[in-house]
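Researcher: Hi, I'm a grad student and pretty new to this. My advisor asked me to get structures for two proteins we've been looking at. I'm not sure of the right format, so I'll just paste the first sequence and hope you can take it from there.
Model: That works fine. Here's the first sequence with its structure tokens right after it:
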Amino acid sequence: MSTPDDATSPELPAPGPESAPQQAQLPLNPQHFGTFLAVVDAGGRLSTAARTLGLSQPGITHQLNELEKRLGTRLLDRGRGRSAKLTRAGTVFERYARSIVGLQSALYADLEQMNVNVGGRLRIGATPGLGEHWLPPLLHGFRVEYPDVHMELRLSGAATIVDEVFAHDLELGFVGGTWARAGLQFDPVWEDRFVLVAAPTHPLAGSVGLAFDDLRGEAFVAQSPGANLRATFETELAQRGLTLNHFDVQAELGNQESVKSAVASGWGIGCVWQQSIGVQLEVGSLVVLDIAGFAPESSYYAVHRTNRRLSRRGQALLEFIRRSRELRSA
């Protein structure tokens, strides 16, 4: 869990890498718990943890040394030129550290809950597709219910949103997929289905019960590689023994807006989230192709830190989205 420039921790007075705790233990500094967990969540790379916490790498090293000194045991095996690894004592300490940090966050949140007013600043992020179509109406309804909450919405790629939640720059992020990443929790908050669309003048527009064989060789406008919607669509194709190569891919564009504009201009067919095309369907610039047996659904997820309890504002927003989803499903 370190990089070549990570310093090797000094030898402790107790013998062996995992000495027994000293009888006279020193009081622990709560800040050291968060620093230790940041190193663990960074895969043991002290330089990465330093950037996450906004500290210098020597500062991280000093805090870890002080923590180990106060506990009287080695928590991390830190060697020059390699990532640090948890010792047996470090593995035990990690469980307690996460519980203590979680309880501390819960304490602050519960104290905040005592305030009558939910108001304050709430920083959230979303991918462009969700932040431009799905989320704004919900945020408007939320503000009507909680007018004292000032929201900041940042739009960026899913990987960036996840990184900023991990770094505590955002309290909540909304993305179209999940990551297996320590320190983060992904909760499904909404369902949508993706559809294939075309311009009203397209030869296949208005056809009923199309099969995927009818689409072979058709001009297709795709999102760029790495986009969650593209990956989900490619997975759906693979289940039918197909790939994007069975289409005539005309372009790979950065986001849904570009895809919708290109498709509406007659460039080909494209795949988009259904909830993103309400306006286009209403004005008649796009139509949904009727493909037999093709109604795949996927989820939108809220991502937040596992060791940081959401503020009252964050909890209220997730609860509002949950209620809105239930009303939509009723």
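Researcher: Oh nice, that was easy. Here's the second one.
Model: And its structure:
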Amino acid sequence: MDVLRTVVTVALFLVSIALIVVVVLQKSKGEGLGSIGGGGRLFHHAQSGLDAFLDKATTYVAIGFMVLAVLASAFDVFI
């Protein structure tokens, strides 16, 4: 089980680095909390191919990060 724990830990580290890179590569939308007050530019602009890819990549990498984090914590609790 130590090998599996090591694999999950290394995978969690690599996915966390990938998540940081994907988030940093995204173009700033410039909205911040201003979109709450009715500044609707956030919802009306078209995304380029790279922006759409980075949005989907962020979603998938974040889901992978959460799954690996749950697995890592489960190893510490149950094993």
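Researcher: Is there anything I should tell my advisor about the second?
Model: You could mention this: The two ends are 8 Å apart (CA to CA).
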